[in-house]
Design brief:
This protein is of the alpha/beta class and 467 residues long. The chain has helices spanning 20-40, 51-65, 71-78, 83-88, 160-178, 190-199, 235-243, 251-269, 278-288, 295-305, 335-346, 355-359, 384-394, 421-431; strands at residues 80-81, 104-112, 121-131, 136-141, 147-149, 155-157, 182-188, 203-207, 211-212, 225-226, 229-233, 289-291, 313-317, 320-325, 328-333, 372-377, 398-404, 414-417, 435-438, 449-453. The protein has a seven-stranded mixed β-sheet, with helices on both faces. A five-stranded mixed β-sheet has the order 17-16-20-18-19, covered by helices on one side. Strand 2 (104-112) and strand 3 form a beta hairpin. It is globular and about 60 Å long. The two termini are 39 Å apart.
Length: 467
């Protein structure tokens, strides 16, 4: 049974004859749903935010240890490929031969599969760009509430694409939304996520803030609380950490935590100290992953990425802002920002910038007159954004825009930056409140710094509500 909040409009099915592409899409969706029915009794949730790095990095560590041999053949027997998906991903030009030795985009999804349902929703959506030649990887998080046009179904939340048409329609929707040429697909099972983390002996993560979320823990009383600070998370606690939306910022905060986990995971998987656990890790992946990549592809790709450095991994989010439409909460993507981000990644350019690069760039000391600022009301208190903007303007900052945030849920003021943290730190110091946060594409603004005014700001005046 579908939840209305997941899909804002469903158009009637077409009565015209299927085109070959529509037939391929239907078969792909049927194959996907058949797999979901087989696994529904175990109440699994696919969480893809782990598998991509294990698939490409763990075989490399295994190769270093000299463990390949006949075990690769054993792994192949346990490995599941989606044949319909492999057909759907074939290039439109039959003369084009795609390999994992050249840069490529891969979709990594987490799917909410529920007992008794024949179709599923994508709980987590990532697009991973891998460049084997440069030995780099960029993970682009797609907010699941992003409003997108889904062919044949109008505008809906992007996570509905998997429900309507399986992996192929999800891939098609992401290509339409971002302009990326997607050639591979991966899904990881919920129980498999825990298995893999446990096979690694846990993952060391610096947890930003306390989490208490029984739903994210699948109502496991032993793992629904995750305390803040550096700690080794086992599979159950890691699942709570990457699934929880129990924050004022909801899915944006969850994406941020997933990116924290991904960077911690990549660091650990690429460590040779983990090499003796690799066989167990890949066995867990083989039991729980569904993808078009073959085992041969994985090992070939791993060979190219063996010398990948931790700093060669970037994690970003498609730029956009929250907005209520007809009572439904969406993320409205910045179309130009999305195209610019994908183009930069395709060109092999850094999207997030580097603190080291900025520090060593020879720039002079930052002064308020050098900083442009957008100020948004994050609590709904009339005049609070104007008040903060006036204070910053008195100090010399150049205010470009004052308005409302998409939601009035911010307890803390956020000072957000894209590339130059020094400018954000200066704004935060002059405000005297709030946290400095790197945007990583999660906030849409065109100035140097975005200030989202929270409840910790003490407005000295009250005027009309900011527009």
């Amino acid at each position: 049974m579908r939840r209305a909040s997941e899909v804002d409009r469903v158009e009637p099915a077409s009565t015209t004859a299927e085109t070959p592409r529509e037939t391929s899409r239907r078969r792909s969706a049927e194959s996907f749903r058949d797999g979901q029915r087989r696994r529904a009794k175990r109440n699994k949730t696919l969480l893809g935010c782990l598998g991509a790095f294990v698939l490409v990095c763990a075989p490399a560590a295994l190769a270093v240890a000299g463990y390949l041999g006949g075990w690769q053949n054993k792994l192949t027997k346990n490995y599941r490929n989606n044949d319909a998906l492999m057909v759907a991903l074939k290039p439109k030009d039959s003369s084009v031969v795609r390999t994992v030795t050249e840069p490529f985009w891969m979709v990594v999804v987490g799917v909410d599969a529920r007992p008794g349902e024949t179709a599923s929703r994508s709980d987590t959506i990532l697009m991973v760009h891998v460049d084997p030649n440069r030995r780099t990887a960029t993970v682009v998080s797609i907010p699941r509430d992003s409003r997108a046009r889904i062919r044949g179904h109008g505008h809906n939340k992007i996570n509905a694409a998997l429900f309507f048409g399986g992996p192929e329609l999800m891939i098609e929707t992401l290509e339409d939304t971002t302009g990326a040429d997607i050639t591979h697909y991966l899904a990881i099972d919920f129980n498999g996520f825990k298995e893999i983390v446990d096979a690694m002996g846990g993952v060391w993560v610096d947890v930003p803030e306390r989490i208490e979320d029984k739903k994210a823990a699948n109502y496991d009383r032993r793992s629904y609380i995750v305390d803040p600070g550096m700690q080794k998370l086992d599979g159950a606690h890691a699942l709570t950490f990457v699934r929880s939306r129990n924050f004022p910022e909801g899915d944006i905060a969850r994406i941020r935590n997933q990116q924290v986990f991904l960077r911690a995971l990549a660091k650990q998987v690429l460590s040779l100290g983990n090499v003796f656990r690799v066989k167990g890790i890949l066995d867990a992946v083989a039991r729980n992953a569904e993808t078009d990549l073959t085992v041969t592809d994985m090992f070939g790709l791993a060979s190219d990425l063996m010398k990948m450095k931790e700093e060669s991994l970037e994690t970003v989010t498609l730029p956009g802002a929250p907005k209520m439409m007809s009572g439904v909460s969406y993320i409205i993507l910045d179309e130009e920002g999305v195209k610019e981000m994908i183009a930069k990644i395709d060109a092999g350019e850094s999207v997030t910038g580097s603190a080291t690069a900025v520090a060593g760039s020879g720039q002079t000391t930052v002064t308020p007159t050098m900083v442009t600022v957008t100020v948004r009301n994050g609590v709904g208190v009339a005049g609070i954004a104007t008040d903060a903007a006036n204070e910053l303007e008195k100090k010399g900052f150049r205010i470009q825009e004052v308005g409302n945030a998409g939601q009035f849920v911010y307890d803390k003021t956020l000072v957000v930056y894209n590339t130059d943290k020094r400018k954000a730190d200066l704004v935060r110091t002059q405000l005297g409140v709030g946290d400095t946060v790197e945007s990583r594409g999660m906030y849409s603004f065109k100035t140097d710094v975005l200030v989202v005014v929270g409840r910790d700001w003490r407005a000295s005046t009250a005027g009309s509500e900011d527009e």
